[in-house]
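tool_log.txt
---
The assistant was asked to compare two proteins side by side. It first ran the structure predictor on the initial sequence, then on the second. Raw inputs and outputs are pasted verbatim so the downstream comparison step can read them without reformatting.
(1)
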Amino acid sequence: MEEANRELTRRVHDLLGIYDVLLAINSSREVDAIFDLIAQSLVAMVGADSCMTFLCDAGTHKLGRQLGLGILQETTADSEIQESQLSAHVIRSKSPVEVEDTGSEDNLDCEILIRRGLRAFMALPLRTREKTIGLLIVGFAQPHTFDERERGIIKLIAEQSALAIENFGLMENVERQGKELRLAWDQMVQYAHDLRHEYDAERQRSAQLHKAYLSAIKVLAAAVEARDPYTGGHIERVTTYCVAIARELGWDDKRIAQVEMGAALHDIGKIGVEDAILRKPSKLTMDEYRQMKAHPEIAARMLEGIDFLEPVIPYVLYHQERYDGMGYPYGLSGEEIPIEGRLVAVADGFDAMTSDRPYRASMSPEEAIAELRRCAGNQFDPQIVDAFTRAWAAAKSS
């Protein structure tokens, strides 16, 4: 039990650490401040001693100024790293480089990093979908072997950092959002610590773990939902609808417990979508829609490697697929779409239709059910629509 509690606390702490960094990226107007925070967060989360970021100059396409020094003091000129064989190799290959001990590496000019006091490092290109825009180096003062957890954290933050730089000018409402998200961070950290002590006193480990997981997930999901003023209560309603559908389909309690977590997390990838897009009352541009469409894959990457959340990835990754193959991110159709995604799609669609939006009034539940039936076989799975309709009729008559 004690080991399980420690693992839970570490997993939740990792998730919240990544969450905090991504939100900071998407809420700051100061690029230097963003990369200072990224450096500090990576140093804390993976135990590194240094985090350096070099951005490519838009005119020359060469590495330019350095940001985010971590905790080590600068001992060599920036130009040495910018012009090094190591940097050229990472930028050219578009792939990460790991060195466990710089003192035994002969193929790259690691003496530059040795003079900085680094004995191990990971160097990654900062890439958007189309180009390399910089270089990230995470270093250790002693020889170090990177594990999968460290690689996952570093690579995810590197990906989101590149996206943030590319879309830097589109962020709004920084001060208010920062306060809200800092409050959510404080609440979640406190909750994670309280959770450990609560479990020690409980005799029903499985039931307690699920209850704690779901509570933590709902607080995190609510913090994301709070960024969009038009979706208040959306997570709770979609979760309720999904559970009702699953019960109508005859799913067992263990599977329904996963439904609760998957439904609560289905929009968590919107952490990586800017406020300017989430709050836009008018139609999105092609580029804005492209960014919005990235949220299922962002969510899946966040949950990868977290043992108790990996089973719910299908709920977040496939809920925007359509039965006719016209959805995203993969354009799957029919039963190629995992049933978890098809289930959330119906619940999500019903709630969207029965909620007010700036550009249209809400439908009545009866109108929305009629629309679900009309779109069955095109947008929605007919089997799931039938199950939802039966569950809705049963709830209304009770």
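(2)
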Amino acid sequence: MSKTTYKIPIGPIHPSLAEPMTFNFEITGERIERVDLVPGDNHRGIEFMGRNRNIIQIIYLAERICGICSASHPYAFCRAVENAAGIEVPPRAEYIRVIIAELERIQSHILWAGIAAEELGFNSVLYLSWKVREEVLDLLELLTGNRINYGMFMIGGVRRDITEEHLPRIRKTLDYYKETYQTLENVFLKDPSIAIRTKNVGILTYEQALHLASVGPTARASGIKKDIRQDQPYSAYADMDIKAITPDFFTGEVKGDVFDRIIVRILEVAQSVEIIEYCLDNLPEGDIVSEPKLAKLLAVLKKAKGEGVGRHEAPRGEAIHYIKLNESENPEVWRARAPTYNNLMSWIPMLQGQEIADIPIVTASIDPCIGCMDRVTLVESKTNQQQVLTREDLIKLSIAKTRRMMK
């Protein structure tokens, strides 16, 4: 008897999707035979808006690319501008940047763990995870004034200092996560129910992750030891010996499944605690910003000419910002690439061959942020027909654009 294949669309609005995204599945019985991704419902035009703002104003726009990574994008953006304009960041500011970034990694990974538990149907674990996450959010509010969108980063440094009065509260939070870490490990890495639902599910092999240019925990869970903090260390990371965490640290092997992606994030919570402790123990004295007067800083940026790239290892993976300054208040070019843009295609090999019931946890396992990565579809204004660009077309357009930019 021949098998019958059915087509099932999921999205763009679906209970298991926090953001609009369309999946077109072909299934046989309960098994997924093929999947096609259809993004494009959530483009916000942030880069376009940025080109109509001055360089300093863009910092706060970059911060809103992602609410959960609201330190990562301004971090990468500021590094890009500093690179283009030749601005040096004081050592104390570099350490404070890393402290904020690692506190964000803790809250982001714990938030993801709670969402993953909810996708598996374990709402009690969701509540536990978000209760644990409150501690770091309260600390971020104390240090920056906000639980999300911290407003901490400035070109040439940071806007607020970490004072002696803050240190006991920071260490209290770090001690809390040291004490709570074993609970997180027991719940997520030693619970048989979670293991049954995540082991050998949504496998992304080393070769597939490498071929698809996966980044962050998605790549590391497949055994790729890729981490910007390790490979091209910056800020205070350059003073530490950061090691990319892979699942064999815990299990002794790498499968590249959903369980391995849980392992990497849970272990990285403990790693972030260690990084913050190092920064507190070695926090340099001195200024927190190269130029405290914003009007003077903007005057310097208006005269700057050059290109810069800023990279940061965000919780989801490497975030990259590119800026081109051309002696103007507004940038000539600003481009941001969020890690989800790289990890999106990893869904295809992860989902093929899986059961329909595995779709929510597999899609959640890359910690997607659709609003961060979404792009537009080109449409011919006269004919209103979608324009399909081949690989050769894209290469030609890229070369032509590069030549225009170099003039």
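---
observation on (2): The chain has a mean pLDDT of 91. The domain at 46-372 is CATH 1.10.645.10 (Cytochrome-c3 Hydrogenase; chain B).
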